[in-house]
């Protein structure tokens, strides 16, 4: 990484940010404090941005897309098939303005739809409340005459209406109570009462849970109101259908909205970078990091812009971001490293070339099956070719192609093809032509050999990690430290091997003495040095535990084989006693379901355990983590691939 400083005119700002984004190799950072630039830093201020406006536009377009997808019943699937678009078409302002206008129209329809849905809910509630009063042949607006009052009310169903009526007659002689209807909760009542007796009547009724129902806003009988509400509901439904139809009709312009959303994502990035720029109104100043591999690209993009820039090596107190850069075929393993932690910029090492081979081999060994490998390879290749996914998803399917090939190779060595499906199928349905696939090593019949191979790979893996540690120490001018950290342990383990083979423990003792006199060398005082060396003897348990961890290579291989064998045997059982064609059909159904399940759970488990062997057993020997991800200003699209005039995709 290089530290970049750049000066330009304010009039060049937007053009400059567009070029930096196209270059894709510059991360714009917060500028240094003005106190560190006393000559002119106090003259600068933060540049103004349109970040809130762009965020609002992005939200508008995203909401419009969601509405179109919802009401047009669009099935987008798990992956998005990107379309290629030239840069000049991608950044055409007229296209974005048209899409924004369309998004506003769709969202306005959606707001109208929300109002109609609220209105529908209110109408349905009104209809529900009117239904109990439907038998009442009395206008709701008729509440009184010159001498009498008409009052609608309710009381609990548990109230005895006969007793309530009798009590009312004693309390208020000129009052009459009539039941209109009832439901499982309450009674619906009409009270006709002389005005002079109203107060006494209501006091009597309230003692039994009576409540008044108010209908001041309604006219006509309840039945007439119910008919009007039903007509309004029908009109509401027609209006909602028209609005939904209008939104659904925009499905043909969905690509325009998707393009606009991608375009606004680029504008959002530029506005976020613009927030970090200092200006005095005439000129602008920005700082950032530029990857050394992108210096020539940066110079090319800035060649026709009026600006002055420089880059330098990072200062010791600065923490540059980390960018892992490898050959394209190797970059897919980035996802494994990034799940753990990026290597430290200073003192670290890119582990991707070191773990790639081991990770692929470990995965293939644990998942070993020719059919599973071919399926994994074909699916990964097909998705990569058709959808061209980017980022972590793209790395996952690119890596899946290598893992599929490795799985298939180990499947050939172990004779696995959907487990023992060929053997079980021919035994059950064609016993006169039983087929057994050849295998160099059968994991179910010779698990000890598999375990020895797994432990051997583990020792090789850990020794390689120690060699990397020696290299890193030598690179930093500490070759002797690297040798003393590692070689005494080699002597110990070589001695253990010789003791097991020949019965002599001399080399083991030499190794432990080497540990005693070397592992505490950085401590002060002879006693502390010896105690530090003595304490290192306890690490032998950690080493043995790390080596035994590689038994999971055998365990996962057996798990894959045994589970597939169980499903294959289960698939043959229902076919006994059935006609052969029916039995074969039943076999295929159970066989497919079982093996798909086996593939699903073991792909996840195998990936996790292959990664674990890198993180805990391998990285612990040399890895220095803590790197900060490099986040350059670049094209980040979801729906399209931006291309140059020559058709090359701009990364």
From TrEMBL:
Keywords: Coiled coil, Ion transport, Membrane, Transmembrane, Transmembrane helix, Transport
GO molecular function: ATPase binding; proton-transporting ATPase activity, rotational mechanism
TM stretches of this protein: 354-379, 399-417, 448-471, 491-518, 550-570, 582-604
Gene Ontology CC annotations of this record: proton-transporting V-type ATPase, V0 domain; vacuolar proton-transporting V-type ATPase complex
One Gene Ontology term from the biological process aspect of the record: vacuolar acidification
Subcellular location: Membrane
Main location: membrane
Pfam families named among the record's database cross-references: V_ATPase_I (PF01496)
Coiled-coil ranges per UniProt: 92-126, 226-274
Bilayer topology term: Multi-pass membrane protein
PANTHER family reported for this sequence: V-TYPE PROTON ATPASE SUBUNIT A (PTHR11629:SF63), VACUOLAR PROTON ATPASES (PTHR11629)
Similarity-based family: Belongs to the V-ATPase 116 kDa subunit family.
Protein name, per record: V-type ATP synthase subunit I
Record organism: Evtepia gabavorous
Top-level taxonomy: Bacteria, Bacillati, Bacillota, Clostridia, Eubacteriales
């Amino acid at each position: 990484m290089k530290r970049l400083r750049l000066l330009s005119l304010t009039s060049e700002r937007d053009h400059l940010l567009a070029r930096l984004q196209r270059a894709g190799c510059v991360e714009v950072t917060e500028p240094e404090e003005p106190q560190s630039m006393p000559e002119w830093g106090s003259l600068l201020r933060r540049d103004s941005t349109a970040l809130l406006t762009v965020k609002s536009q992005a939200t508008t377009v995203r909401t419009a897309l969601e509405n179109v997808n919802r009401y047009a019943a669009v099935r987008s699937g798990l992956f998005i098939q990107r379309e290629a678009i030239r840069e000049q078409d991608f950044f055409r302002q007229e296209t974005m303005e048209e899409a924004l206008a369309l998004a506003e129209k769709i969202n306005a329809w959606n707001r109208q739809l929300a109002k109609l849905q609220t209105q529908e809910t209110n109408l349905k509630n009104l209809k529900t409340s009117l239904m109990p009063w439907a038998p009442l042949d009395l206008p709701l607006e008729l509440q009184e005459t010159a001498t009498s009052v008409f009052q609608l009310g309710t009381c609990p169903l548990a109230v005895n209406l006969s007793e309530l009526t009798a009590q009312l007659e004693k309390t208020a002689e000129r009052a009459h109570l009539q039941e209109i209807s009832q439901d499982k909760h309450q009674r619906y009542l009409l009270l006709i009462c002389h005005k002079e007796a109203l107060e006494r009547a209501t006091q009597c009724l309230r003692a039994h849970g009576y409540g008044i129902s108010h209908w001041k806003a309604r006219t006509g009988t309840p039945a007439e109101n119910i008919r009007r509400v039903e007509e309004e509901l029908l009109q509401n439904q027609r209006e909602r259908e028209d609005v939904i139809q209008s939104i659904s009709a925009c499905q043909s312009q969905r690509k325009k909205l998707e393009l606009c959303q991608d375009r606004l994502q680029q504008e959002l990035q530029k506005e976020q970078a613009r927030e970090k720029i200092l200006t005095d109104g005439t000129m602008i100043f920005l700082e950032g990091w530029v990857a050394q591999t992108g210096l020539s690209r940066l110079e090319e993009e800035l060649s026709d812009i009026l600006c002055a820039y420089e880059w330098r090596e990072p200062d010791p107190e600065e923490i540059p971001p980390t960018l892992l850069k490898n050959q394209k075929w190797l970059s897919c393993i980035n996802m494994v490293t990034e799940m753990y932690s990026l290597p430290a910029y200073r003192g670290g090492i890119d582990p991707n070339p070191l773990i790639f081979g081991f990770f692929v081999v470990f995965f293939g060994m644990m998942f070993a099956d020719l059919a599973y490998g071919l399926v994994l390879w074909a699916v990964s290749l097909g998705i990569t070719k058709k959808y061209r996914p980017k980022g972590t998803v793209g790395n996952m399917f690119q890596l899946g192609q290598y893992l599929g090939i490795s799985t298939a190779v180990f499947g050939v060595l172990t004779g696995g093809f959907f487990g023992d499906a060929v053997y079980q199928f021919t035994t059950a349905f064609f016993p006169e032509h039983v087929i057994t696939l050849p295998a160099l090593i059968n994991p179910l019949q010779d698990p000890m050999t598999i375990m020895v191979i797994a432990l051997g790979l583990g020792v090789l893996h850990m020794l390689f990690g120690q060699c990397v540690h020696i290299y890193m120490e030598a690179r930093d001018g500490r070759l002797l430290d690297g040798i003393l950290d590692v070689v005494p342990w080699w002597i110990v383990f070589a001695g253990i091997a010789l003791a097991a083979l020949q019965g002599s423990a001399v080399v083991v003792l030499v190794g432990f003495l080497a540990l005693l006199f070397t592992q505490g060398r950085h401590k002060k005082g002879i006693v502390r040095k010896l105690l530090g060396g003595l304490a290192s003897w306890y690490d032998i348990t950690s080493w043995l535990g790390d080596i035994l961890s590689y038994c999971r290579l055998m365990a996962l291989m057996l798990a894959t084989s045994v589970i597939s064998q169980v499903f294959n045997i289960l698939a043959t059982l229902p076919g006994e006693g059935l006609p052969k064609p029916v039995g074969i059909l039943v076999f295929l159904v159970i066989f497919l379901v079982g093996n798909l399940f086996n593939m699903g759970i073991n792909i996840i488990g195998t990936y996790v355990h292959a990664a674990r062997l890198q993180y805990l057993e391998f990285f612990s020997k040399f890895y220095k983590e803590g790197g900060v991800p490099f986040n350059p200003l670049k094209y980040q699209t979801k729906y399209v691939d931006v291309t140059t005039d020559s058709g090359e995709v701009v990364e």
